[in-house]
Write a sequence for this structure.
C-alpha cells in the first residue's frame, strides 16, 4: 500500500474565498464607479450616521432602541417590553421574519448589498481606508514607507473598530452609561473595560481578517435564499442569451450595417472579467445566482462602463429576474407575494391589538407552597398566596388588594406595595374566608387591585381551597 497522500482537487469551486488547494483566497476587489455605487454610498453613509445616532435619540424620555438584556427589558421607539411581554415579543419577531421573507421574494438580497452593517462598514469604511494607505487594486501602489503605512492603517482600523464596538454596546448598556465608561478610569469599572476591549477585538478580527467570509460562510441568510427566492425575484443576473458566446471584439464600427455583419458573431460579453475583479465576494456572476452574491450591483456598474466604451447597449448584467432573463414575462402577483402580506397583516393586527389593550399593570397570583389551606379556630379558612405585580407605567405607584366577593372574605398580613416605574415586585398575603362560603372544598374569589395613580383597576378571579367539612370538636 502506498504511503503517499493524494490531495483531492474538487472538480468545481467550493467557495469564492478558497483556492483549489484549500488555502484562503484573499480578495482585493476593484472599485467600479457607477450610478449604483453612488446610490449605495449615499445610503451607506446615511446608515452609518443613523446607527451611531440611534442610541442618543430619546423618545418619551427613553432611548429609541435599548436592549437591556441584564434586566430583560427591551425598549423600541419609546415603548418598553417587559419580561411578561413574551407573546408580544414573539409576534414582533414573527413580523420581522415575514417582512424579510416578503422583501426577499420581491427584491432579492437587497438588504445584504445595501443595508447590512457588515457590507456597509466593510465596503464604505474599511476598504476605503485600505485603498487610502495601500493604493487601489489595478493601480500602481505607492512604494515609499510601505511598513509605516501598514502600521498606520492598523491604528486607524483600531480606532474605527473601537468606535463601532462602542456604538454596538450602547444599544445594550445605554449611550450615557457607555460614555461614563469611556471617560472614566478602567480601574473604576474593570468588567466594562474588558467587555469593550473584547468587542473591539472581535470587530478588528471581523473587518481586518475574516471580512467577506462572514457573508460566504457564517451568515445563514445566503443559504436561505434558495427557499426565499423564486424565478420572479429581483436579482443581479447576467443575460446569457445576449452575452454568449464570449470573446474579445473591437468597438462596433459606425460605417453601417454591412461593416457590422463582417464582425465575428460573438455575444456582447468581451470576457474582460471586470465583473469578477470588482465583486466584493469574488464570484463570477456569469455562472448564475450563487450564495455568495450579496446583490451589491458592483458588477452591474463595471459591465455598464465596459459596454459604454465598446458601444454596446447597457444592461448585459443588470437587476432582473430569472424568468425575464430566460425570455418569459415578469409575474408581480404570485402566491408568496399574496400569502406573506396576508400573514403579516394578521400578525400585525394581533400585535397592535394586544399592545393597545395591555393594562397598566400585570397581576399574577401564585398559590403558596406547603399546606393548601389552614383551618383557624374561628372556623375560618386561610390560604397563603404570593402576588406578583408588574408596573408597566413610567411612574412609581402603590398597589392595594381587596376582596370583592364573597362577602366575609378578607386579606390579612398585607401592606400596600410600592413598585418603581416598570418594576416587578412580589409579596405574600393571606386570604381568609368563612367556611360557609365554600362549596365542595373550594370558592371562587374576586380580587380587586388598584393603584394610587388611578391607572389600575383590575379584578382577578382566584380559586381558594378549603376542606370538604369541618373537623368535629
Amino acid at each position: 500500500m502506498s504511503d503517499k497522500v493524494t490531495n483531492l482537487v474538487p472538480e468545481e469551486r467550493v467557495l469564492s474565498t478558497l483556492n483549489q488547494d484549500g488555502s484562503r483566497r484573499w480578495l482585493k476587489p476593484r472599485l467600479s464607479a457607477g450610478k449604483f455605487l453612488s446610490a449605495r454610498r449615499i445610503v451607506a453613509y446615511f446608515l452609518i450616521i443613523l446607527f451611531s445616532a440611534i442610541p442618543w435619540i430619546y423618545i418619551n424620555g427613553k432611548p429609541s432602541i435599548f436592549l437591556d438584556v441584564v434586566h430583560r427589558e427591551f425598549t423600541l421607539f419609546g415603548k418598553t417590553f417587559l419580561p411578561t411581554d413574551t407573546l408580544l415579543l414573539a409576534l414582533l419577531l414573527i413580523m420581522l421574519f415575514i417582512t424579510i421573507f416578503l422583501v426577499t421574494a420581491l427584491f432579492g438580497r437587497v438588504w445584504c448589498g445595501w443595508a447590512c452593517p457588515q457590507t456597509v462598514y466593510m465596503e464604505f469604511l474599511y476598504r476605503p481606508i485600505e485603498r487610502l494607505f495601500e493604493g487601489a487594486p489595478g493601480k500602481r501602489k505607492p512604494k515609499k514607507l510601505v511598513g509605516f503605512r501598514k502600521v498606520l492603517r492598523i491604528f486607524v482600523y483600531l480606532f474605527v473598530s473601537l468606535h463601532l464596538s462602542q456604538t454596538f454596546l450602547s444599544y445594550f448598556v445605554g449611550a450615557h452609561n457607555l460614555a461614563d465608561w469611556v471617560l472614566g478610569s478602567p480601574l473604576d469599572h474593570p468588567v466594562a473595560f474588558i467587555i469593550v476591549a473584547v468587542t473591539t477585538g472581535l470587530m478588528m478580527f471581523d473587518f481586518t481578517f475574516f471580512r467577506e467570509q462572514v457573508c460566504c460562510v457564517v451568515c445563514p441568510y445566503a443559504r436561505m435564499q434558495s427557499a426565499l427566492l423564486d424565478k420572479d425575484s429581483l436579482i443581479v443576473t447576467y443575460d446569457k442569451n445576449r452575452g454568449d458566446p464570449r470573446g474579445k471584439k473591437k468597438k462596433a464600427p459606425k460605417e453601417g450595417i454591412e461593416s457590422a455583419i463582417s464582425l465575428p458573431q460573438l455575444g456582447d460579453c468581451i470576457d474582460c472579467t471586470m465583473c469578477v475583479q470588482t465583486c466584493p465576494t469574488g464570484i463570477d456572476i456569469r455562472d448564475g445566482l450563487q450564495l455568495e452574491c450579496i446583490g451589491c450591483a458592483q458588477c452591474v456598474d463595471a459591465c455598464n462602463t465596459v459596454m459604454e466604451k465598446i458601444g454596446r447597449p447597457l444592461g448585459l448584467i443588470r437587476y432582473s429576474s430569472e424568468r425575464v432573463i430566460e425570455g418569459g414575462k415578469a409575474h408581480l402577483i404570485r402566491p408568496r407575494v399574496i400569502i406573506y402580506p396576508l400573514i403579516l397583516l394578521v400578525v400585525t393586527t394581533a400585535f397592535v391589538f394586544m399592545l393597545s389593550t395591555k393594562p397598566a399593570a400585570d397581576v399574577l397570583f401564585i398559590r403558596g407552597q406547603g399546606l393548601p389551606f389552614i383551618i383557624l379556630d374561628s372556623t375560618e379558612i386561610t390560604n397563603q398566596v404570593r402576588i406578583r405585580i408588574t408596573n408597566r407605567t413610567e411612574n412609581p405607584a402603590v398597589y392595594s388588594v381587596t376582596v370583592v366577593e364573597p362577602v366575609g372574605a378578607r386579606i390579612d398580613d398585607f401592606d400596600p406595595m410600592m413598585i418603581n416605574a416598570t418594576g416587578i415586585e412580589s409579596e405574600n398575603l393571606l386570604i381568609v374566608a368563612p367556611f360557609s362560603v365554600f362549596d365542595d372544598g373550594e370558592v371562587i374569589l374576586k380580587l380587586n387591585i388598584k393603584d394610587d395613580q388611578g391607572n389600575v383597576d383590575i379584578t382577578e378571579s382566584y380559586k381558594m381551597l378549603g376542606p370538604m367539612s369541618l373537623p368535629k370538636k
Q: What stands out?
A: The mean pLDDT is 88. The chain has three domains: 35-224, 235-325, 361-465.
